Amino acid sequence: MALMSITYYSQVMDLDLSVQVLYPDKGRVENPDDTDIPVLYLLHGMGGRDTTWLRLSSLERLVRKTNLIVVMPDTHNGWYVNTQYGYPYFDALAIELPAVLQRFFPHMTDKREKTFITGLSMGGYGALRLALETSRFSYAASLSGALSFKDFDPRTESLGNTAYWTGTFGKIIDWESPDNPHSLINLAKTADKDTKMYIWCGEQDFLIGANDFAAQSFKDLGYDVDYQTAPGKHEWYYWDKQLEVVLSWLPIDFQLEERLS
Asked: What is one Pfam family matched by this protein (predicted)?
C-alpha cells in the first residue's frame, strides 16, 4: 500500500488538520486501476491521533493486497462531535473530509454500499455516530466502543475532568446533550436501519456493560447487529486481532496473505 500523510486546511475548523491514507499499490492488488475503489474510515480513540492505527496495529500488513482505501483522520480528543467549546469535529469529518478526499483521490468511491467506518473506544462511538447521523456508511464497526454512559460516569474513571466533559458534550451526566454517547440509542430510532453493525467488546473491559446495553438496544430497534464478546481488556492486543475480523466482515475482496497450515 502507498502511505500518504496529508495536511489540509479545514474551512469548517479554520485550522490545519492531518489525515493518513493507505492507497492500493499496483502489483499487489488485482484491480489497481479501478475507478470505484471501496473506502474504510478508521477512527482512533482518546489519546490517539491519525497515525495511531499505523503505529499500534497490523493494518498495513493486513490490507497490502486488498483493493481498499483506508482513511485515518485526526479528531484530537473531540469525540467526533461538534463540541460545546466551538470546534465542529463532526462537520469537519462527516461532511467536509469526504469532499476533500474526493478531490485528492477521484478514484475513491462515492457509493454508500462501498463506504465503511470503524473505530475503537472513543472512535467506536464516533463510527456509529457518523453512520447513524449521515447516509454515507453502509457498514459500521465498533471495537470496545464508548457506546453509552449508562451505569458509567467517565469523570470517575480518570478519563478527564468535569470541565473537559462539559466542554465536549454539555451536561453529559444529565443526559441533556444530543451528542452524549447515551443518546446514540435515541438517534438510532430515526436513522436508516439499513446500516449493518459489528460490535465487539472484551469481557474484562470497563465498557462491557455499555456495549451489552447498546448492542441489545440496536437489535431491539431492528438493526442488523453482529455483537461479539470474548475474554479481553481495553488494549491494543485485542483490537489488533479484531481488525482482521472486521476486514473479513466487510463486503470487500479481502486478500489476506496466505499462511502455512
From this structure: Esterase
